[in-house]
Amino acid sequence: MKLLSSFLKEIKLASQSFYFILEVIFSLILLFILLFVIPENMAEKKDDRYIFLDAPAEAEPYFYDSLEDLDGVPEAVEVKAGKNVYAAMLYENEDTNYYLLDNRAEMLSLAESKSSFGAIVKIDSKTYQATYEYYLQGYETERLKNLLKVVHIRDVDTLDAVFDSQEVRKISAEYDVLSDRENTMPALLTFNGALMGLFILAAYMMMDKKEGVIKAYAVTPSPVWQYLASKVMVVVLTAVITSLIIIIPILGAEINYGWLLLFLIGGGFYASALGQLLAGYYDDMEQGFGLLFTLMLVHGIPVIGYYIPSWDPLWLKFIPSYYIVYGFKELILQNGDIPFVLWSALGLFSGGFIMFLLAVRRIRRTLSV
Questions:
Q1: Is 141 left (phi over 0), alpha (psi -120 to 50) or beta?
Q2: pTM higher than 0.70, yes or no?
Q3: 207-222 tens-digit pLDDT
């Protein structure tokens, strides 16, 4: 009962505090971004190609016919490069925009100012044989450079036939694809539910130490663990509420809220226990801010890996937030890996419990000094 009474008291205090209001506002901002800034599916940006055709007039139609346009009619457009504006013919297909310029200087100016791809296509007046001169930006891979060297050796129709004949096998028939909005949610929920919990509880504890609240526990019958547990419960509850503010309007009934609640409790408990342990070694926010900022930065590294799937070093999996961000992803997927979610929640809760015991021990030592 003492723990419940302390918990209710902490809820009342937290609801009136700056940090609680800050987290609610932060979750509302994230919800606004997801609903009104990030579209359900972002349209893929087309690549721009700038081309100068160096060919006799009678050969030009052969080249133009090789360029596909969505509606079959190229468009006369103006393209700006710095202070200059150039006239061009735009051939637009599904994934590329081809701009045909009147001279070499214009092509080079646009390719340089747009940091894009430029080419000169030369057609021999006698043989009608085409040669290609490419202008790259320097960041292209060796594979692309080698491809450009050999792609014109074979006839385009022959290459298309080879590509079309390639057999494609699905590794899994049960593969879900998240929308762009859904794919953004795991990273935002990790910051909102876990990293904000780490920051807020550390701030709470350091503020209590500075005001002498923790020292007052030395002359009360209440055990230290109840005081710390009530703090953890408030932060976990806040993480659950603010996460639901984001999740419910977007996912509705598409997610299992039972598993979600269990996972949020595990992640929130880990983050809050880490914040308590950190606060046990500093007397105010100014002293501990450097380490607190570093911890939040380290826990943000797996989010970078989440957006760069090809970058997945083994050491990344030793950062607990790795399991938070990927746990959220599995929960959002229709056929997500629930065992991974449950094991992650158990691991986070276990690690949080160990840090909670260490925080209790540290605070007891502080009170006895």
A1: beta
A2: no
A3: 777 776 666 666 666 7
